[in-house]
Structures are given as structure tokens and as C-alpha cells.
Design brief:
The protein is an alpha/beta fold. It has 7 helices and 5 strands, in the order H-H-H-E-E-H-H-E-H-E-E-H. The structure holds zinc ion.
Length: about 220
């Protein structure tokens, strides 16, 4: 087959090239060994990411327990910074936890003192930047409208959450702020990481609180 450069330099010759040399497209899936290797590498990457997500969510759960100890609704969050090369999407450094926080709404008497909101503020201080690109926010409960809005404002790259929130969730349950195409930034969401632990922590907290308020009432089924 003639070199493409030759045809590029002679506009009159392209017709005969097309007639004489039918284009043969070789599908990349034709080599089953290469395909299997790619698939294995892909699932190994997915497994590594799942394990990392669980490890960071375990730190967020530790924060949630600290909230419960302080009489706050047990929700915790951490922010992980993973500097990434824009063009190759390869990591430029090891990921590291740059912020961890828990819900302090009662303690601070502040409607914005949600775990992930406080963690993002800390993360901005740690990086000296309002923009949290290359950051993943891990939070034990699905973010509300305010916190998903802050993730949008901060340009986070990803949010991983534990339990969905049917009454306020804004990352897929009631709203999908992360995926709204009218907005000028979208971010990836991974739901359901250590979901059962996040949920049972919340259910345990509210059950204890109900019991403290109404000690004579029989326990409600969950
Ligand atoms: Zn929130």
C-alpha cells in the first residue's frame, strides 16, 4: 500500500487510491489474547480502586464515630488529593489524605457545618487553592444540595459516598448536581461504598436518641 504522505502531496491521486486499495479495518477485539489481557488489567485496576475507596471510606467512618461521640449526627468525610497529569491522566504523585472532618452542626451552631463541607474547606486551606481539582471527597452519607453545590464550585473530580439519602441526597437520589449538563462542571460519583456500615451507624444513633427521649416506649423496628 502506498505511503499516506505521497497521496497527501498529490490531490489527484486519491481517487485511484480509494478504488484500488479498499480500506480494511481490523477490529481491536480480533486478538483474543490481547483483549483478555486488557480486560484483566481493567478489572485489576477496578479492584485496586475499590480497595482504595474502602480504605478511605473507613477513615470517613472513623470521623463519623467521632461525631456520634460528640452528640452529632454521625457523618464523616475525608478529602484525598491525587495529582494527575492532564494530558496522560497518569498520577504525578502518591495520593494523600489532605483533610478529614465530621459533622459539627450542633457544636458550631452552623447550618453549613456538614462533614464534607468542613473537609473541603480544610482541603482548600491545605492546598492553598479554592479549586479542588484532582481531589476525591469521601463521605459516609450522600451529599445534600449545599455540599454537592460546593463540590461543583470547588471543581472536585469525584465524590464517593456510603449510604444514599432518600430525604436530601443530591448526587443521584433526589437530584444529580454532579451530572447536570446545564452546569459548567460535572464530577464522577461512586455510591454505596461501605454503605451498610454508614447506614447502621446512623440508625444506631437515632435509635439511641429516640430511646433517650422516650425511655418507656418499646423499640421501633428499623
Ligand atoms: Zn451537606
Amino acid at each position: 500500500m502506498p505511503q499516506k504522505g505521497i497521496w497527501g502531496s498529490n490531490p489527484h491521486s486519491s481517487a485511484s487510491f480509494e478504488k484500488d486499495s479498499p480500506t480494511v479495518i481490523v477490529p481491536v477485539t480480533q486478538n483474543p489474547t490481547a483483549e483478555a489481557q486488557r480486560s484483566a488489567a481493567g478489572s485489576a485496576d477496578e479492584e485496586a480502586r475499590r480497595q482504595a475507596d474502602e480504605a478511605y471510606m473507613a477513615l470517613a467512618l472513623e470521623e463519623a464515630r467521632l461525631a456520634a461521640d460528640a452528640g452529632e449526627v454521625p457523618i464523616g468525610a475525608v478529602v484525598v488529593h491525587h495529582p494527575t497529569d492532564r494530558s496522560t491522566r497518569r498520577p504525578l504523585a502518591e495520593p494523600r489524605v489532605i483533610a478529614r472532618a465530621h459533622n459539627l452542626r450542633e457544636t458550631l451552631n452552623s447550618p453549613s457545618a456538614h462533614a464534607e463541607f468542613l473537609a473541603m474547606q480544610q482541603a482548600s486551606e491545605a492546598l492553598g487553592a479554592w479549586r479542588l481539582a484532582d481531589c476525591t471527597v469521601y463521605v459516609t452519607l450522600e451529599p445534600c444540595i449545599m455540599c454537592a453545590g460546593l463540590m461543583h464550585q470547588a471543581r472536585v473530580s469525584r465524590c464517593v459516598y456510603g449510604a444514599p439519602d432518600p430525604k436530601a441526597g443530591a448526587c443521584g437520589t433526589l437530584y444529580a448536581i454532579n451530572a447536570d449538563e446545564r452546569l459548567n462542571h460535572r464530577f464522577e460519583v461512586t455510591p454505596g461504598v461501605l454503605e451498610d456500615q454508614s447506614r447502621s451507624l446512623l440508625q444506631g444513633f437515632f435509635a439511641t436518641r429516640r430511646k433517650a427521649k422516650h425511655p418507656d416506649q418499646p423499640e421501633q423496628p428499623q
